[in-house]
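Colleagues,

For the teaching module next term, I've prepared a clean inverse folding example: a structure given as tokens, and then the sequence designed for it. I'd like students to try predicting residues themselves before seeing the answer, so please don't circulate the second half yet.
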């Protein structure tokens, strides 16, 4: 990097861009892009998809400015960047890191889903969930209810099927799963979420002669708890004995004997 560029980077560090909401935007919605600046700016500009021409500008900005995109269309599902012109020190920043606006388009069919196993499985079973859409899917996402972002993603095979494995499941894998996919084509379009499958992971019965596992831990925890209780009882008994002894000594020193007040 040329020395001048390094100086500009130090004096006018790049801004950062964030999306609100960052998930679950559909065609027709409004989203807000926030450009966060480290200093006062003469202007802030918003850029779409690495295009050198900006699409929006705000003047005289301190700290942060918002750009609102109303009535999102398919072609707005691209990446965005912002940059600013600093006032003091003067200089134009680099563009921020790009953020991707993923847009759900309900005109695409949701993917199908199937679970390899029964809905109730024992701990440490390997479970697979398959999702497919032959026509449009370029990446398939596996979502779990309660998580805002997909938990896995995969490129489908030639038949349009992705196979997600949940390895050696534990109780934490219980829940409701669904898929969506990224649509083939220009933009960052997503299909709607498909039907759900639910998984319930049940604890294994402990085989006899096994090295214990969770049940032995439970015994250890109970014993640990008992040991702690015994220590507390001993400490309490000793303190009471000491207090009692001190009270007796005070009474002996002051025959008037109002020593019980402080207890
Ligand atoms: C589950 O998969 C892992 C590797 O993916 C394998 O090592 C393990 O043996 C499998 N467990 C069962 C019960 O099939
Ligand atoms: C999952 O789908 C079934 C029907 O396919 C539906 O009855 C159930 O309410 C759904 N569960 C959730 C959590 O959405």
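(Answer key — instructors only)
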């Amino acid at each position: 990097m040329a020395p001048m560029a390094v100086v500009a980077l130090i004096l006018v560090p790049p801004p950062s861009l964030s999306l609100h909401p960052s998930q679950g935007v559909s065609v027709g919605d409004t989203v807000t892009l926030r450009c966060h600046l480290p200093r006062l700016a003469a202007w802030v500009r918003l850029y779409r998809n690495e295009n050198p021409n900006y699409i929006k500008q705000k003047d005289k900005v301190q700290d942060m400015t918002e750009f609102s995109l109303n009535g999102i269309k398919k072609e707005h599902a691209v990446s965005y960047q912002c940059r600013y012109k600093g006032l003091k020190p003067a200089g134009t920043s680099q563009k921020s890191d790009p953020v991707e606006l993923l847009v759900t388009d309900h005109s695409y069919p949701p993917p199908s889903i199937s679970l390899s196993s029964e809905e109730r499985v024992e701990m440490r079973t390997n479970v697979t969930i398959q999702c497919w859409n032959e026509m449009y899917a370029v990446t398939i996402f596996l979502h779990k209810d309660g998580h805002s972002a997909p938990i896995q993603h995969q490129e489908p095979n030639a038949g349009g099927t992705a196979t997600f494995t949940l390895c050696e499941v534990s109780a934490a894998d219980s829940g409701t799963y669904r898929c969506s996919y990224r649509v083939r084509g220009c933009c960052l379009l997503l299909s709607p979420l498909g039907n759900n499958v639910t998984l319930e992971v049940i604890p294994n019965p402990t085989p006899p002669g096994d090295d214990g596992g969770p049940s032995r831990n439970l015994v250890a925890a109970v014993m640990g708890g008992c040991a702690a209780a015994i220590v507390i009882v001993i400490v309490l008994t000793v303190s009471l004995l000491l207090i009692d002894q001190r009270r007796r000594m005070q009474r002996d020193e002051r025959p008037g004997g109002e020593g019980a007040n402080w207890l």
